[in-house]
Amino acid sequence: MKKVNPWIFVALTCLFELLWVYGFNSASKFWHWALVVLVIVTDFYFLTKACQGLPTGTVYAVFAAVGSAGTALMDWLLFKEAFQPLQLVFIAVLIAGVIILKLSDRPQTPGGAL
After folding, report:
1. Which of 20, 15, 9, 96 is nearest to 59 (CA)?
2. How far apart are CA 85 and CA 27, in angstroms?
3. Is 40 exposed, middle or buried (0-12, 13-18, 19+ CB in 10 A)?
């Protein structure tokens, strides 16, 4: 069986995180909440699968950054919350931090140089 690229699990956990955040804002009936719980359980399954193939710090940083940026975008676009330009600056800082963290995950060569 071919090994699945762990970044696919990172993408899935990010997607499912945004789905359950949307569900929290939209659920109004019992079965809606049951779906939200199912999505959360599935989300954490994908999160654990991603952590089996990648450094946990990187996975969690991507998970948190995508969740934060995606939630802010959903607030503006779907739930008509007020847009603050400074929020866009901080989302860019989050994304830059994740990129820098990913770049720092490269294996070190002997002697400690990157």
Report:
1. 9
2. 29
3. middle
Query: Which has the closest alpha carbon to 97: 51, 66, 55?
Result: 66
What is the C-alpha separation between 13 and 8, in angstroms, rounded?
9
- Flag whether the pTM goes above 0.90: no
Model confidence pLDDT, tens digit, residues 20-55: 999 998 999 999 999 999 999 999 999 999 999 998
- In 10 A of CB 100, how many CB atoms? 10
Q: Give Cα separations from 27 to 5, 21, 78, 105 (angstroms).
A: 33, 10, 14, 39
DSSP 53: H
